[in-house]
Amino acid sequence: MIFDIFKKKNSLELMAIVKGDTIALEKVNDPVFATKMMGDGIAFVPEDTIIYAPCDAEVMMLSETLHAIGLKAANKAEIMIHIGLDTVNLAGKGFSKLYQNDHVKKGEPLIRFDSEIMASNNIDMTTMLIVVNSKEHVCRNLRLNNHVDLHDVVMCVD
Question: Strand 109-113's sheet: what is its strand order?
């Protein structure tokens, strides 16, 4: 037990899920995310309309409305991507599933959203990358308040 501190943890690098600017969850205009009720992570203000896999993972859940997807990484981190705020109210309108298999590769396109539909519905497209089981996994090296491209590492999960 005492020697567990010397064991190497399975650290996982999560890549940017979309090109754009990163912000702290605390700055998200939704108390569920801002208070980290769903878990720790990072948020994006997207420049593009395609959301990509942050790592190799198994797809555990895709909401019927396509606005949220749950992934499980090899290190057992459970990752949720939530696209936009209040997008559940669109009932799937403006979203398209892009992946084919239940195992996705880092950088694989997952979901596309229609920016015109989002704008016409006054949707805040802030998109969250959350480690749902962050009580078991430490999120570190969050790349906050930066402009990121798709292959940039935005956080590590131990």
Answer: 50-52, 109-113, 95-97
